[in-house]
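TEACHING EXERCISE
Course module: macromolecular assemblies
Task: Read the component lines below, then compare them to the predicted structure of the full complex.
Student: A.B.
Group: 4
Components provided:
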Amino acid sequence: MQLEAHSLSFRYGKNPWLFKNVEFSVEPGEVVGLVGPSGFGKTTFCRILAGYEQPVEGSVTLGGNPLPVKGYHPVQLVFQHPERAVNPRWKMNKILNEAWKPDKELLDTLGIEQEWLARWPGELSGGELQRFCVARALGPETRFLIADEMTTMLDAVTQAQIWHAVLEIARQREMGIIVVSHEAKLVERLCDRVVELGRRL
Amino acid sequence: MSSLKNKRQRAILITVLAVVLLAGVVLLGFILDEEKIATHLDNRNSPPSLEHLFGTDWLGRDMFTRTMMGLSLSMGVGLAGALGSTMIAAFLGMIAATMGRAADAIVSWLIDLFLSVPHLVTLILISFSLGGGAKGIIVGIALTHWPSLSRVIRAEMMQIRSAEYVQVSRRMGRPGWWIAAKHIFPHILPQLLVGFLLMFPHAILHEAAVTFLGMGLSPHQPAIGIILSESMKYLSSGLWWLAFFPGLSLLFAVRLFDVIGGNLRLFTDPSKTHEE
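Instructor-supplied answer key:
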């Protein structure tokens, strides 16, 4: 089940094209880095792959089929700011189990402690919250995970812990990962292949 | 007093007290004997005493009983009016936020239209054209008090609709109705409740005002507005208690509702859960 983008183009309204005719593909189990200067549409590109936006031209396919519009999206996106990606009126337990019930093993791998489950999002740190967002996105139907600056605002130890866990799970499940980051060292360390998104693609 | 250490516990205590007081007034309005507001010409114009806490009027009616009955009647009218208004606000706010640009433009225009005319003027017009009485007042209040709350609901809906966690929820395959029920409605509900409670004092005051002007409830009902407008004639002859106590009670009741509404806002805000 390959994730492919065919001649993808996007612009907001009548603004200049953010990117035009981008070809992109990820194999299952592959870790691909996506780099490029700020404002070149990396995040928008990720949002299209994960079904948050519709491309102006071109299409995204998974194993040759178009992505589903309804139901659980097989491409899950983890955002840079976890505090915005959780409902502040829900306790962590409810947030974690919104789509599926992660087992204890997964929570341990990601370093999520049981006592955090009874707390409000405002009572956890960014790193702690991001672990929940990652766990939530790793449902059994997730084929590809997109990490859009997923660990940028976290300290080095937390960063390493989360990435170890994610890579481990990805290997077990043959899940593809797309890493978007400005940290060249991180991308170099994690990825099998790096794609550069520039104006002239 | 260890239980009164933090702001939250103090607020809970005050809210409970306010609710009990208001409930007490409504209860008194029902259980007080009609006999007490019958005419007793032998006991006219007596100043406040232990037997007649608020004194008696020029027909010998007990002013305390009249005030309590008047307040509970006002609260009934206020309740109906504020409830109607809150429903209109919620309905229009949701339409504006979810039904596209044209609907939004129309609703926003309506809000601006109603906000540009003073409440009281529209209220008097509507209630007068419906022939006055409780029905006129209630419809009038319901039709005039929704705009600001509607604007709040519209803004909240727009904000939460594009919130990241709502979009995430959609990508995790949650159906639209589920998102509306679990994410959006719980977010709107506190605003609606607080809006409703804060509308209440307005509704009561405006009811009293319109009735005072003679375009509201009929003079046979013991409404606060009626009591106040009748008392005006006797103020100059030194019967100060006729207007003083009912007026004070009205202010007090209105303030209590304000306190309840304000505290409810405090309780429903999760970021204030642990405020000391």
